[in-house]
Amino acid sequence: MKARIALLSVALGLCSPTFAHILNTPTFASQFYYDGLIMTPDGKGYFGQQWLENATEVTLFPKNGNTAMWTLTLTSALGQPIVGEPVEISAAPLTLTVPQWREPADMAARFSSSVRAKVLTRIEQGLFRLKAPFEISSPVTDARGQISVSINNFHSCGNDSIPGSDQFVARAGTQQLTLTVKCAVTGLVAIPDTPSQGLTTAGLVGRHLHPDLLSALQSLGRAWHAKPDKPAGMPDHLTITGATMRWGGINPPHFTHKFGGTVDIRPIGTQAGPISVGDQAYDRQATQSLVDALVQLGATQIIFADNLTGVTQVKVNHKNHLHVSFLSEPLEPWHSEASDTDDEGLHWHHYEDIYDIRYFIPKVKQLSPKAFQFELGQ
Predict the structure, then answer these.
(1) At 149, which helix (H) or strand (E)?
(2) pLDDT digits (tens, 9 = 90+) for 27-59
(3) How does pLDDT run across 220-258, given as a tens digit for each residue?
(4) Measured between alpha carbons, how far is 378 from 376 in angstroms, rounded to an integer?
C-alpha cells in the first residue's frame, strides 16, 4: 500500500521539486494605457487613447499633463492572481544620459545667466522634468494580482539620432519586466541649407521643424530668391537662426521652440551676415516685406525689436532676429503661476487640460512662390 501511495505521489508531482516549481512559477504581464497627444510619422497628430499589451517601448509627447498608466499583473502558472506579492519599480536614464540633459545645475547652465534660477525652480517644481517621474499604486499586488505605475512624461528629448529615454524595471521575486519610455515630438524634419533656393541657416543647435512649416518657409525662400532688383549687397536668401531640437522638448537657451512650430529668422539688410535693428545696413522696408509674408503664411506671433506692421510684441532683446510662431498658443509654456513670465517677457499658461492639437502642431498656409509680393522701396 505504501508503495502505491509513493508511486501515485510521484505521478502527481507531489514529491517532484521540478513539477512544484513549475506550478509556483508566476507569470508577469503588463498593459500600457496612454491618453494624450499621439503623433503620426508625417507630423500630424491627434488626441487619443492607446492600449498596448506587454509593450517594451513607448513614446510620450513632452506636454505637461500627459500621464500614462503601466499596469502589471502577476499570476500563477494556473492563471490565478498572486495577491500580496511585493513588486519593486525602478527607473533610470537609458539614452541621453549626459549631465547637461539630466542634472539640474548642468541643464540650468545651458540657459542665460538671467534665467538660470528660474530654470532650477522649474525643475524643482517638476515642471521641467529631466526624467520620467512615476508613482506606484501599492508596494504589493492587489486582489487581482496587479499594481499600477503612473508615469508622467518628461522634457529631455534631445538632439541625437535617437530620443531621450528612461528604462523602467519591474521585479517580483524572480520575475522581471522592462519598459523603455521615450520623450519625443515625432515627425519633425531637418532644415537643409539651400541658399541657391532661398533658404539657409546660421548658428543652429536645434535645426528641425514641423514638415508643414518647413515647406512653407522654403516656398517663401524661393519667392525671395526670385525677387528681382534687390538693393546691392542684399542677400537673395532668408536665414533661419533658431528652430527646434531633433526630438522637441527643452531647447536651451529657449523656453519656447519646443514643438517644431516656432522659428527665428534674421532680419534683412543690405549686406550678408548678421543684421540688427539700428545697424546702418538694416533695411526696414525689406524686413517689413518679410513680416508681411510671414503674416500671409499664418504666423500667430512675431516678436521683434522694430515696431513693424504685423509684429505682435516689440522686445528690445530681439534686434537680430524675428521670433515667429505658427501655433495657436505660441508661447509653448509648460505650466506656471499666472503672474509669472518667460524669457520673452510674456505670461505662461497651464497646459494640463488643453486638448487641441493647434497648441502643439502648427497650422501653416501653403502658398506658391508667386503668391508673395515684396515691396522694397527705392
Answers:
(1) strand 146-152
(2) 999 999 998 888 888 888 898 899 999 999 999
(3) 999 999 999 999 899 999 999 999 999 999 999 888 899
(4) 7
The per-residue pLDDT for 135 is: 96
- The overall longest dimension of the chain from CA atoms, in Å, is 117
CA angle 254, 260, 265 (to 5 degrees): 65
Measured from the Cβ of residue 316, the count of other Cβ atoms closer than 10 Å reads 8
Cell of 241: 537662426
**Residue 167 bridge partners (DSSP):** 92, 180
- Before 253, cis peptide (omega within 30)? yes
Please state, in angstroms and rounded to a whole number, the distance separating the CA atoms of residues 293 and 260: 19
Beta bridge partners of 242: 264
Answer for the pair 263, 242: CB distance below 8 angstroms, yes or no: yes
- Residue 142 one-letter amino acid: D
Residue corresponding to grid cell 518679410: 290
Label the pairing between strands 238-242 and 199-201: parallel
User: How far is the C-alpha of 233 from the C-alpha of 229, rounded, in Å?
Assistant: 11
Q: Does the reported pTM lie above 0.85?
A: yes
* CA pair distance 123, 145, nearest whole angstrom: 35
Strand order in the sheet with 262-265: 199-201, 238-242, 262-265, 322-325, 301-304, 313-314
Find where cell 505605475 sits: 149
Where do the domains of the chain lie, and which CATH numbers do they carry? 26-183 (2.60.40.10), 189-371 (3.30.1380.10)
Residue 276 CB-half CA count within 13 A: 8
